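# nightly structure sweep
# worker-07 picked up a monomer target from the shared queue
# config: single-sequence mode, recycle default, output format = structure tokens
# input follows
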Amino acid sequence: MSETTYTPESGDVEALEFHVTEDHHPETGTLLGFWLYLMSDCLIFACLFATYGVLGRSYAGGPTGAELFDLPLVAINTSFLLLSSITYGFAMLETQRKRVGATIGWLAVTGLLGVAFLGLELYEFAHLLNEGAGPQRSAFLTSFFALVGTHGLHVLFGIIWLVVLVVQLRKHGLIVENQRRLFCLSMFWHFLDVVWIGVFTFVYLMGVLP
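# output follows
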């Protein structure tokens, strides 16, 4: 930005240059945008939960949740995801201590637990399909696969994000940008845990009730 001034003593016209040194990007802009994204994700899952609430008892003469769900297996899978949330918390603690290696180590454990969760979920889906209980069998199974599958896709995207972030940490360390990315992924990962608790309670636990 420039401004032209006139100096009476010399009769010269001087051009003064002004440069804005501050960053135009607000410090909280990224976090605000990510909160807005999480709110939009909440709306998506709210719609899926509402759909399951309406169609969850529409079996069309097919199998019910009590006949299909393996509750001990789902409980083990739930423990994987909840443990991954704890290990991510350890990674954030190491981030505050500026320990790059320890942060990456805990992120790796978190990713392995996420992969284990996805593996058991895919095993469950494969078992249901082999039993002839695919999403086309009834409205109950359609809403079930839509809700649980959407959550699984989010976990998959979270693992991909985690891998990319580990690469960034190895390359650049705990710079400000990487710390911000770690915090955003932390919110995303804990959000998935909260959603899964709802799925476990509303879909699986209530599904085995008569």
